[in-house]
Every structure is written in C-alpha cells, then in structure tokens.
Amino acid sequence: MVVHTGGCHCGQVRFEVTAPAQLRVSDCNCSICSKSGYLHLIVPKSRFKLLSGAGSLTNYQFNTRTAQHLFCSVCGVKSFYVPRSHPHGYSVNARCLDDVTIADLTIVPFDGRDWEAQFRDGRSEVLGD
C-alpha cells in the first residue's frame, strides 16, 4: 500500500488515498460516469483524507439521491465522491491521481448502465469489488 495524492484541475481540491501501487479500477458505462470519463478506485473512508478544498466542493445528487457527487465549484472536476454502491467509502477518480506513485493501472469495464437489474437478478458484483 502507498499513499497516492490527487486533486481537481485547478488545485483547489487536494486529497490523499491509501491504495496499492498497482491499481485496478472500474470503467463504468452509466450515464454520469460515461459522460465524465470517470475511472473508479473504491476505498473505505479510513483510507481517504481530504487535504484542502472542502469549501470549494459542491454536491450533485440525482435518481435515488444516495450518491454524493462532489465537484470542485471552481473548475468543475469530480475527483472523488461517495458512491451509491459504497455509501461508507469513497470512489476516487483514478484520472485525478498524481501518477508518480502508480506502478500499473488495470482498467476493468463495469456495466453500471444495468446496475440495478444486475443486482436484482444476482448477476453482478458491486462496482469496485
């Protein structure tokens, strides 16, 4: 495990996350992730620390209003959020990590477009697992 740092485009929001140097992330095809190019690195809250920019974050919610989509109000980048699939953790956008601590990045497709149907039918694992 290493400490990765990252943040939004303008630098107002900065964070650190403890995760392996060899990352396995999910590329979700749901409506919001596909439009924003989000790559999910799911971590428990204990492995995430917001370093700066709490006052610059704005929250967007839709559908079930469970997920807390946190965007920088200055540049508009969503570098992390609280996902519906892991409400007691964070999903960090791997594209927002400073790449100096990433040894390898494996991207795994995830069918978030049909997320509810998959879980209702017991056909899928949770995003990031």
Features:
single chain; Metal Binding Protein, Guanine Nucleotide Exchange Factor, Chain A; 3-stranded antiparallel sheet; mainly beta; 2 helices
Main sheet attributes: strand count, strand direction, barrel closure: 7 strands, mixed
Q: What fold name goes in the CATH topology slot?
A: Metal Binding Protein, Guanine Nucleotide Exchange Factor, Chain A
The level-1 CATH class? Mainly Beta
**Elements, N to C (H/E):** EEEHEEEEEEEH
Give the count of helical stretches. Answer: 2
**What is the alpha-carbon Rg in Å?**
14 Å
Number of domains: 1
Structural description of this entry:
This protein is mainly β. It is 9% helix and 42% strand. The protein has two helices and ten strands. The strands form two sheets. The chain has a seven-stranded mixed beta sheet with strand order 6-7-8-9-4-3-10, with no helix packed on it. A hairpin with a 7-residue loop joins strand 6 (57-60) and strand 7 (68-72). It is globular.
Short note summarizing the structure:
9% of the residues lie in helices and 42% in strands.
Helices and strands in order:
Layout: E1 2-7, E2 14-19, E3 22-28, H1 31-36, E4 39-44, E5 48-52, E6 57-60, E7 68-72, E8 80-82, E9 89-93, E10 104-110, H2 115-120
Parallel strand pairs: 3-10
Antiparallel strand pairs: 1-2, 2-5, 3-4, 4-9, 6-7, 7-8, 8-9
